[in-house]
Amino acid sequence: MTARIELRGVTKRFALRGRRPLRTRDARGRGPRPDHTVTALDTVDLTVADGEFLVVVGPSGCGKSTLLDLVGGLTTPTEGEILLNGAPVTGPGTDRGIVFQQYALLPWRTALGNIEFGLETTGLPRRERAARARDHLDLVGLTGFGDRHPHELSGGMKQRVAIARSLAAGPDVLLMDEPFAALDAQTREGLQEELLRIHRRTGRTIVFITHGIDEAVLLGDRVVVLTHRPGRIKEIVPVELDREGTDAASLRSDPEFTRLTHRIRELLHDEVALARAREREELAA
Amino acid sequence: MSTTIGRSVRPTSPTSPSAVGTGPPPEPGTSGVPDRAGPLPAGALRAVGRLLTAVATRTVALLALLLVWEMAPRLDLVDRVFLPPFSEVALAWWELLIGGQLWSHTSASLVRSGAGFGLAVLLAVPLGLLIGRYRPLADLLNPLLEVFRNTAALALLPVFVLLLGIGETSKISIVLFACTWPILLNTISAVRTVDPTLLRLARSMDLSPPALFRKVVLPASIPTIFTGIRLAGAVAILVLVAAEMVGARAGLGYLINSSQLNFAIPRMYAGIITISAIGLLVNHLLLTVERRLTAGRPDERG
């Protein structure tokens, strides 16, 4: 397996504007000291293999979304570098597709129109765009819904359209920012299976951010657990579940599945407790 | 976007023919119209019943107003000279129509307000898009905009007359001035409030700035821009009528004012009625255009 994405010592700090300085610890654990920047990510080293399904979990505010923005080229790292296919990331590009939690569909376009929107920067001729959009509509199981506008689609269908749009542009990497968080449990489970199927079929590298521990173990080849602010890699949990030919329900009842979710829950539990304590501290300060 | 979750298709208006047989069961009192049952299917019958109810609901208050208007002077509740019964006003209106004066006044007003309104749209929409897009420009111009939009346009009427005379120029200019603000401010806020997720999406796709503008910002802004245009439509008529009361020789404002001075009270009311009819018509027209332009999406202004 070759490396698709590499993060080398990536640190991201944000300037705080018009806010009280936060107390943060530096990399060697000194402090607390007043600081006018907030460190979202701290010296993160991570390699994502080609075709891997990598899931990132962590307490809220741990820099999960920042990680995704960095790989997507929407922000630049303060320190360190990010390589995509061996070349440094300098900005956004069609080689990476982002799926947002809020779908980000254009309300004035139909489902097909939205998928085609993802192809309009690729320079494909119009006829080919339409054909490719239709193929991807079929891929996400929305055949026959191409003429619907987003407000005529359910939340799950909207997210399917958004996934199709990202995939249609033919990215090397699919970046998903809590894509199923706004959906009800049944719809979410359906989409999780669908995503696994799509991943198997397309062999695409996926970086998937979530709050859900179940979701992380169900989907990921590896699960990265981040620490609370500043975000560092606490542990990378490999998931060795045999997903071939089994459905999500039987996977969930697998003892290994239970063991892994328990492990990740434990890892997160400390971080969430730490996050709470720190919030109280900041409020009191 | 979360506000649109669970919304289904746009509710059809009660008078829409597409409501046949698809709507909820009819309200009590409308279902039983047995005398016309005949060969009509029950669904169509119910639709006709609903239509009649809708028409009745919409007109009953209006009819009541006209009835009070007709009866109050006749019963000597108000002075008949100052508020003649509606029938006399209608007669005066008819005479004005036959005599051609009504059309000449109306067309004079429509040309002025149309010109001012049209120029305002042509000026304010591009300017608003520009200001909304470039923050430094907005910071620079915002204090100025605040001053102007909080100055009643009619308070500036004497200034316009002093600078531009009492002719067409000053009248069209004041309409242009008054119409500019609602359009400009709505356009600016439309561009500013484009769903940030859509902008993030566009950025992640590496869309060029012109493409971003054409494919995302502009279509996303249209509903809010159009709200501004509709407001301006009402403003255009409002301001024009007032402007025509000062030093004009034609126009509905002039008709109303001169009729009052000449004590042709029914004619004065005829002029007023014409203006409200035009106001309603313009609003309806702009609403129709707005619906056409924003077809296929939910009402985003909630």
Automatic annotation (TrEMBL), chain A:
Keywords: ATP-binding, Nucleotide-binding, Transport. Residues 22-253 form the ABC transporter domain. GO terms for molecular function: ATP binding; ATP hydrolysis activity. InterPro entries: AAA+_ATPase, ABC_transporter-like_ATP-bd, ABC_transporter-like_CS, ABC_transporter_ATP-bind, P-loop_NTPase. SMART domains: AAA. Pfam families: ABC_tran (PF00005). This is ATP-binding cassette domain-containing protein.
